[in-house]
């Protein structure tokens, strides 16, 4: 039996269809097929349709490695979360962001890979992988402290989009130089200060005056901003900010429970609590019950995020809504634009209060 050959006379492999076979089936040149596969706009609609029909009929799959050599693109982007896998897969916030990113990327050829980078070993592996040989761009979520990763990626020439501003962007004057460098990065963030002011203002409108706060981590901009909003709302009401009414958690349920116990031990007359996340509010609700406090009769409670769990508590949780999936979509949109050569830009999404029975 004679060996089958491609249109240019080379032996045809017994494996997947080749670019030459697609060209023959479509009745166009090899270069036209290559331009279609690589997304070039320099192809007529008729030729593009013929090539796509041939690709579908033959089941052609592009050789991604060869394509990357020509286009200098990998068609992959990374989402790196600086938290443990337990938190990433267990907390609604992260799931919502990933859903939003995935929905935006579904309209493109870009593939998403997810990495957790909390431990030193995880960080080392991730930093080794994040090069333009592996990904076209990177989204970073849940940054802590003065994380060097954004600057490292910028030096490598990778487009970067942050989910939330880094804490250094809220820093004082002595860090202005570093902050100026960070300001060149694209980011998507929620109006955390405004949301916290609305939440505490709602409690003040309900004639609560001993309003405690369970703040998030102060090595994250989101934790700093929500605490700042709490302080501003108290001050605007003409009340003093009592540091004994502020406790700190890490956005987890157990930290909210521990914080409420600490607060009530210091100040038994607390009549309201603003928790900087829904999960901390859930932990606070459980602790309040165990301490014999009725919600909202004795202590009103407001959370932040408006995750599904806020509707399932008893009583349902008053909370600040932030559009988490929309934030994920915006992160992906900004990254796609940066990969295409657009200048850095940022998006701030609005928050609003969702009133339920806990306050």
TrEMBL record:
Keywords: DNA-binding, Transcription, Transcription regulation
Molecular function in Gene Ontology: DNA-binding transcription factor activity; transcription cis-regulatory region binding
PROSITE patterns hit by this protein: HTH_LACI_1 (PS00356), HTH_LACI_2 (PS50932)
Entries under CDD domains matching the protein: HTH_LacI, PBP1_LacI_sugar_binding-like
Transmembrane feature ranges: none
Chain spans, region Disordered: 1-20
Domain HTH lacI-type positions: 17-71
InterPro entries with a match to the protein in the record: HTH_LacI, LacI/GalR-like_sensor, Lambda_DNA-bd_dom_sf, Peripla_BP_I
Full protein name: LacI family transcriptional regulator
Annotated organism of origin: Dactylosporangium sucinum
